[in-house]
Amino acid sequence: MSAPANSDPDVVPTSGPADTASVVVGNVTKIFNQGRSDEVPALSDVDLTVGSGEFVSLIGPSGCGKSTLLRLIADLIEPTSGTVTVAGRPAAQARREQEYGIAFQQAGLLEWRTVRRNVELPLELRGVGRAERRARAEEMLELVGLADFAGHYPGQLSGGMQQRVAIARALAVQPPLLLMDEPFGALDEMTRERLQSELLGICAKTGTSTVFVTHSISEAVFLSDRVVVMSARPGRIRASIAVELPSRDEAGRQAPVYFEKITEVRQALRS
Amino acid sequence: MRRVLPPVLFGLLALVLWEVLVTAGRVAPFILPAPSAIGAQIVEQRGNIGDAALASGANALVGLIGGTLLAVCAALAASRSTLLGDVSIPFAAVINALPIIALAPILNNMFESTSSVPRRLVTGIVVFFPVFLNLLRGLREVSPVHQELMRTYAASGWTFARKVRLPGALPHLFTGLRQASSLAVIAAVVAEYFGGLQDGLGARITSAAAFTAYPRAWAFVAGACLLGLTFYLVTLLLERLAMPWKRNLIS
Q1: Chain Cα centroid distance, residue B48
Q2: A119 interaction partners in chain B (CB closer than 8 Å)
């Protein structure tokens, strides 16, 4: 069931690319194994818009379909009904044009490539020249603080470092959209907080829109402009909570707004 | 040094024990010759052993390379098509269960007696299966994350094979090659027991044994052992060179 073209006037803003919404999910339903006895309704009537430069977190209990929603945006799976538009184009086309970078829960590095060559991979597949590839990869590694490890193999790095390489790889093509599926899930609290700050810095610097799947409430509140709370079976969007922290640093983590928003998200999850 | 010393010492001790056992126990040389007698034969026959080892080594090498190339192509094809893979594995298992060496006399009769082709064919067939089966397993074991990642890059099937499948399957390929390298030498030597051109180690062993020159037969067996070891070690070296990321992991 392929999504209709972006001619739907309700879904796609017709104005210039600057104020084009980065992601528009319109009335999407996803049923796995449809028509079989093991049919699983994963998402039901989901609408979501991610503005340009916006950081949106998807949060909810296991099985609420937040990863499914991310995969739909990435065109790794297709919706049963409804439309997914990325950068004003159908999701499949956006994927082919590499409109987004993606980072999974596992780093998923190619163990036979050095760190630098791992970051170069998406550039290589885009046909970017050798010298430019190298320069760009080194710039990205600088950004995630791993410039000194460019020549190492992934097996020589810790889990946190591998995850940073994966983020550098996702950012290497300088995508307008970053999709992240619990990228910090397997990390310890210290590393996690450091990477959160690094990620925010990178997003601010590059103006990237981000969709971030997590099941940590504090992580969602700290990172996001908006926290989208989902409920399970079938997955629906229950609430969309805008977050405005005074600053996204240590002081932000101490601010009363931060705790208020955490409570608000928690209540939305519980209700 | 600490890793080399114990096995060397153990080997020397075993040789001394063997020598003492044979001389003190008056063991007949046709049952077991003394290592000193074998050693003397190795020195005396070194030219012959070298020539025969070169002939057998060439057969083993040609068979190994040919069989491996064929196995790599077959595994690539079988990994791309589910049908081909499902059909080929039971076939591979059945033919693998055949004692391939038993084909040697038949193949020998198919070609002229001056031809090296039958021995090389036997070697190639013996090499094919461990390489094919191991590589196919490796090619099929692609991590789901890599699969999804390559999909997000909109990578073609060929790009996927080149950048992810093949390098990812290298450890499996070398597991197969390690088995195959020793098998290749065995096949090349043993194939000569069943006729064909008689210029390799296998022929020397049978003729020495036929003349009851047992120390000489053992000297050629030692040559075959050395040849097999050389093949194995070269494969290990290639493995280290081909997969630098494994080596760096240890240091």
Answers
A1: 22
A2: none
Domain-located, residue B85? yes
Query: Furthest-apart CA pair in chain B: how many Å?
Result: 75
Q: Is residue B3 part of a domain?
A: no
pLDDT at residue B249, as a whole number: 55
Kindly report, residue by residue over B8-28, the tens digit of the pLDDT. 999 999 999 999 988 888 788
Mean confidence (pLDDT) of chain A: 85
User: pLDDT (tens digit, 9 = 90+) per residue, B33-74?
Assistant: 888 889 999 999 889 999 999 999 999 999 999 999 999 998
* Chain B stretch 165-184, residues whose beta carbon is closer than 8 A to a beta carbon of chain A: 167-168, 170
Q: Are B146 and A108 in contact (CB under 8 A)?
A: yes
Q: What fold does the segment set A22-99+177-270 form as a domain? A: Rossmann fold (3.40.50)
Query: Is A25 or A9 the better-scoring residue by pLDDT?
Result: A25
Q: B154, A95: Cβ pair inside 8 Å? A: yes
Q: CA nearest B165 in A: which residue? A: A110
**Domain range for residue B230?**
56-250
In-domain check, residue B130: yes
Find residues 143-172 of chain A whose CB sits inside 8 Å of chain B. 152-156
pLDDT of residue A7: 43
Please tell me the distance from the alpha carbon of residue B209 to that of residue B19, in angstroms, as a whole number. 21
Contacts of A154 in chain B (CB under 8 A): 245
**CATH at B123:** 1.10.3720.10
Residue in chain A lying closest to B152 (CA): A95
CB contact under 8 A, A102 and B149: yes
In chain A, domain spans = 22-99+177-270, 108-174
Dihedral sign for Cα atoms in the order A17, A20, A23, A25: negative
- Determine contact: A119 vs chain B, CB below 8 A: no
Mutate which of A110, A113, A128, A180 to disrupt the B interface (most B C-beta within 10 Å)?
A110
Q: From residue A117, how far is each of A90, A141, B149 by CA, in Å? A: 30, 11, 15
Residue B16 within a domain: no
The shortest C-alpha distance from A145 to chain B (Å) reads: 22
Bridge partners, A229 (sequence order): A59, A239
Interchain contact A95–B (C-beta under 8 A): yes
Tokens 């994350």 appear where? Answer: B145
Tokens 């240590």, residue located: A250
Considering only the C-alpha atoms of chain A, give the largest distance between any 2 of them, rounded to a whole number of Å.
54
Q: How many folded domains does chain B comprise?
A: 1
Asked if A98 has any chain B CB less than 8 Å from its own CB, the reply is yes
